[in-house]
Design a protein that fits this description.
45% of the residues lie in helices and 22% in strands. The protein is an alpha/beta fold and 285 residues long. The protein folds into three domains: 6-86, Orthogonal Bundle (Arc Repressor Mutant, subunit A); 90-160 and 254-284, 3-Layer(aba) Sandwich (D-Maltodextrin-Binding Protein, domain 2); 162-251, Periplasmic binding protein-like II (D-Maltodextrin-Binding Protein, domain 2).
């Protein structure tokens, strides 16, 4: 009878999902060499080549593609059994900035749930400033936010590039104040946009403030204003209008992960979240 080692299977799944031995090692808190050894032992045990690696690419082999779903099911059953024996249900609270929480967040959280069924993540979406304040007060265990100007702590997950977006029909006359829609007066992206306009000597007026990202999106999509959005989250039907209206480039910022978690399993979950975030950003880029 064929017996499978759970950690070897976990290494295989991590390499397959992240398409990188380096990122898989980081997520597992291990080394690239150790991941490679465990994968090789698994392949020898099943008598199949599961991962194909070239200097430029890591991908599933034909046999690996057949095995991947069974491997995930095997790990889910294994982790559920272990969680049942240990009764170690855990939870942590995660804050995600509204300008960061793109469509990939649901996928990333689902991946975490598959990795650790005993882990419950409570998610709070708000602006970066409020989330950082909550994290500093100990009300959040971790936060994924836009880098604040006066802080240099946290793990950088990647850059965030912005643009000025409006509908193609949006009308702005040269010399008139540019009409803005912003999330709230506490929003760091609002401060970034206004500071950029002030530095360039361009007059502005806020015609829509607050109400959440969906209402800001609605105001821009209706042609009432322009707004600064992360390029990957620009509303459908809008275009970048900085050149059209002579607006200055908005400086890029960084997305940062702050965490106070210390237990091994929770930190492993955060490593998986960080690696998956890197992966999605790389694909989007």
């Amino acid at each position: 009878m064929l017996w499978l080692d759970a950690e070897a299977v976990r290494n295989f799944v991590m390499v397959a999902e992240l398409q990188s031995f380096t990122r898989a090692a980081d997520a597992m808190g291990s080394t690239q060499a150790a991941v490679s050894v465990k994968l090789k032992r698994l392949e020898e045990r099943v008598g199949r080549k599961l991962i194909e690696r070239t200097p430029r690419r890591v991908r599933l082999s034909a046999d690996g593609a057949l095995f991947i779903e069974s491997a995930r099911s095997f790990l889910a059953a294994h982790d559920k059994a272990v969680a049942g024996l240990s009764c170690s249900s855990r939870r942590f609270t995660l804050g995600i900035a509204g300008h960061v929480a793109g469509p990939e967040v649901t996928t990333l959280l689902a991946r975490l749930s598959q990795h650790d069924p005993a882990l419950t993540i409570e998610v709070q979406v708000d602006n970066s400033t409020l989330l950082l304040d909550a994290f500093d007060r100990g009300e959040l265990d971790a936060a994924i936010v836009r880098r604040e100007d006066d802080r240099r702590d946290g793990e950088v997950l990647g850059p965030e590039h912005f643009g000025w977006y409006a509908t193609p029909e949006f009308d702005h006359r040269l010399g008139e104040p540019i009409r803005l829609a912003t999330l709230s007066r506490l929003c760091g992206v609002r401060d970034l946009a206004i500071r950029t306009l002030d530095d360039a000597g361009i007059p502005w007026v806020e015609v829509f403030v607050g109400g959440g990202s969906s209402l800001v999106t609605a105001a821009v999509s209706a042609g009432l204003a322009t707004a600064v959005f992360p390029s990957r989250l620009a509303p459908p039907g809008t275009v970048e209008v900085s050149r059209k209206f002579g607006l200055p480039d908005v400086p890029a910022t960084e997305i940062v992960l702050h965490s106070s978690l210390t237990d091994r399993r929770s930190r492993e979950a955060l490593r998986i979240l960080a690696c998956a975030f890197h992966e999605h950003r790389a694909k989007a880029g």
